[in-house]
UniProtKB/TrEMBL annotation:
Residues 311-325 have a biased composition (Polar residues). Residues 305-325 are annotated as: Disordered. This is DNA-processing protein DprA. It comes from Thermostichus vulcanus str. 'Rupite'. InterPro entries: DprA (IPR003488), DprA_WH (IPR041614), DrpA_SLOG (IPR057666), RuvA_2-like (IPR010994), WH-like_DNA-bd_sf (IPR036388). Residues 319-375 form the DprA winged helix domain. Residues 90-298 form the Smf/DprA SLOG domain. Pfam families: DNA_processg_A, HHH_5, WHD_DprA. Transmembrane segments: none annotated. Belongs to the DprA/Smf family.
Length: 381
């Protein structure tokens, strides 16, 4: 049998069981993942007897009996059919398109509803989160960073809330990038109401995601839960502004617990919206000190990959070519049209400073780059 077809067939067989198990009282995402890991298949777990179920961490005799009773009234294929009825696509961990980083969580969502089109998960996803009442300073830097990440080929992930979330989504879209909104409602419910146009636009340049069924209204307890998905989808979380006890800090703490990178925008100590970020920095989060240094920390290339490809496909000369020396090629990939400092170049390329300095000098002499005051460099026009 063809390996791809075999894999797809197994996924199709498993899909109904993810949905059925999620309807069993007492089986949340944590226990569901343990069942999958213990039995290797949720179908086999569904067919297991009470004694076998009790071998799974967190399942004792009482819960095993409850599972047995629930299975008498649940038919996985019928649960699948009912879930398909609203016509809204969804992913389970059995599906090949399920986000791989999300499966690494101890409690991955068993179902993820999708409105729009998810990007390829090969693209780096970066979360931008923050307060619902940002200052002009927070809005400015959220716009700048959201656009820069989009131009660097990242997927910008946020929660579609008022304030920083909305600014981040909008900046990414305006830069031509893809964005994902993870919501604490059904994907078909617009919350807050003023984000209806943004909700529609995201579906054309990304997707709305939720673990809650279509039609689910907003509820206070949903939003901390959805924050784990934001943190889990992304290799890094950026907190732009957040007062003490902000929901954005929950996302940051979760990201840190998952072993992902966390960055925070420093602000005025007299500004309430900056205090959560300052506390994150005090406890080890990276500082956002500008676009160049942030992209270098994230090991991202500044500038739009699309624009670079367009430039290389037309015209002639150095603007369409690239250096042949390996060290020069590496620097060429990091350099963009915006100036970048030598420290950021050293971090991004991992070159020894002597090698970096001599390579920069040769590229300047050959006309590949321009040196600016303060030992900053950019590609030659």
């Amino acid at each position: 049998m063809d390996p791809l077809n075999d894999s797809l067939n197994r996924a199709a067989q498993e899909r109904p069981y993810w949905l059925a198990w999620a309807q069993v009282k007492g089986i949340g995402p944590h226990r569901l993942k343990r069942l999958r890991e213990c039995f290797g298949s949720l179908q086999r777990a569904w067919e297991a007897d009470e004694l076998a179920l009790q071998q799974v961490e967190g399942i004792g005799p009482t819960l095993a009996q409850s599972i047995q009773a629930a299975r008498l009234h649940l038919i996985p294929e019928q649960v699948l059919e009912q879930t398909l009825k609203p016509g809204i696509p969804f992913l389970t961990p059995a599906d090949p398109d399920y986000p791989p980083l999300l499966w690494q969580l101890p409690d991955p969502p068993p179902i993820l509803y999708v409105l729009g089109e998810c990007p390829t998960w090969e693209q780096p996803a970066i979360a931008i989160v923050g307060t619902r009442a940002p200052t002009a300073y927070g809005r400015h830097w959220t716009k700048q960073i959201g656009a820069a990440l989009a131009e660097a080929g990242c997927v910008v992930v946020s929660g579609l809330a008022a304030g920083i979330d909305g600014v981040a989504h909008q900046a990414c879209l305006d830069a031509g990038g893809k964005t994902l909104a993870v919501v604490g409602t059904g994907v078909d419910v617009v919350y807050p109401a003023q984000h209806r146009p943004l909700h529609q636009r995201i579906q054309t340049q990304g997707a709305i995601l939720s673990e809650y069924p279509p039609g689910t209204p907003p509820a206070k307890e949903h939003f901390p839960q959805r924050n784990r998905i934001i943190a889990g989808l992304c290799r890094a979380t950026l907190v732009m502004e957040a007062p003490d006890h902000s929901g954005a800090l929950i996302t940051a703490y979760l990201a840190n617990n998952y072993g992902r990178e966390v960055y925070a925008l420093p602000g005025n100590i007299n500004t309430a919206a900056a205090r959560g970020c300052l506390n994150l920095i005090r406890t080890g989060a990276g500082m956002i000190l500008g676009i160049e240094s942030l992209l270098a920390d994230l090991q991202l290339v500044q500038g739009s990959p699309r624009e670079t490809a367009d430039a290389e496909s037309t015209g002639s000369g150095k603007a369409q070519a690239s250096p042949t020396d390996p060290n020069q090629q590496l620097l060429w990939q990091v350099l963009g049209s915006e100036p970048i400092g030598i420290d950021a170049l050293a971090q991004a390329t991992q070159m020894e400073i002597t090698t970096l300095s001599s390579t920069l000098l040769m590229m300047e002499l050959e006309g590949w780059l321009i040196q600016l005051p303060g030992m900053r460099y950019r590609r030659a026009p």
